Amino acid sequence: MSEYEIGYGRPPKKTRFKPGESGNPKGRPKGTKNLKTDLIEELRERVNVREGEKSLRVSKQRAFVKSLVTRGIRGDGRASTSLLALMARAFDLADAPEVPDGPLSGDEKEVYEALVERIVEEHANQAGADADNGGADEGEKS
Questions:
Q1: Cα 32 to Cα 22: distance, rounded to the nearest angstrom
Q2: Number of domains, the chain
Q3: Can you give the residue range of the structural domain that contains 41?
Q4: How is residue 55 annotated by DSSP?
Q5: Cβ neighbours for 77, distance < 8 A, ≥ 6 positions apart
């Protein structure tokens, strides 16, 4: 008997993979990207977006968020729900209550309307500040 002990994690030498031989020869080809990588690359691509008279070049991710916020401000309930859920995930608000799928109560409507009013005011203030800067947002310069 040879001095090499065969057992768990110690296969016989003749059945081991040879140097350079793969244990999964028909596995995933090198360079194949997964869904997460493809999604990240797609969202990073830049597109032209019109805001009023201005044309901006922003990432697809930024364009999507702008669209979602705009629809929420205009009163689209589904967009508002999606935006709040997205904010909870983005800001890791694990303790935040789940957003119900039903109509808003009176108190909830008041809070929602106050939030929309605040966002509209901030958006108007930001638009005025951007106009003072020549319309260039520092984070979006190309």
A1: 17
A2: 1
A3: 36-126
A4: E
A5: none
